[in-house]
Amino acid sequence: MNGQEPLLGRSLSRLSEICVGIAMLLLVIITVLVVAQVLARNLFSTGLPWADEASRFAGISMVYLATPYLLFHGQHVAVTMLADALSGVKRALCLAIAELATLGFCALTLYGFYRFLLRAGRFSSPAMGIPNLWLYMPAMISIALLAVISLYRLGRMMQRRALVCP
């Protein structure tokens, strides 16, 4: 990012970096939990069901929290064969449709979370007793941030296109 990047771009970049930092911390937590569980089983002949649940939660959260950073920096998984074969307005339109598809995915996913949590939000996780709302919160935050980043990318595409085409 250069100094010319708009405030929204800098803010989104920083938010996505915070998410990646949390994801890295979660990776460390997963490692500690798995090692603790192995030691508890082998040395003390006891299981740690909460550690298994916590490591699963951390793993899923880690994946979701990394996605906004990847999208913001254009390092996400993308199939670009069609866009790479096109040029000019056709290429820009193809890339815009891809961003709109990402936005659609985010909207459907957030709506799905909303509908799911209307029912499941009343319950807690079996081992740790954490309310489902908190378990799904990292994924919901990440998808919402993904939608904002996708909107930002779409706006930047349109802005660049407007600069090229008078």
Give a quick rundown of the structure:
With 166 residues, the chain is mainly α. It is 80% helix and 0% strand.
In words, what does this structure look like?
It contains five helices and no strands. The chain has helices at residues 7-44, 49-72, 81-85, 88-120, 132-164. It has 166 residues and is mainly alpha-helical. The protein has one domain (7-164).
Alpha-carbon distance between the termini? 26 Å
| SSE succession | HHHHH
Number of helices: 5
Spans where pLDDT lies below 50 across 5 or more residues: none
Q: Describe the largest sheet.
A: none
Pfam families: DctQ
Keywords: Cell inner membrane, Cell membrane, Membrane, Transmembrane, Transmembrane helix, Transport
Function: Part of the tripartite ATP-independent periplasmic (TRAP) transport system.
Subcellular location: Cell inner membrane
What is the element layout, followed by pairings?
Layout lengths: L6 H38 L4 H24 L8 H5 L2 H33 L11 H33 L2
Helix pairs in contact: 1-2, 1-5, 2-5, 4-5
GO molecular function, one term: transmembrane transporter activity
Function: Part of the tripartite ATP-independent periplasmic (TRAP) transport system.
Organism: Vreelandella populi
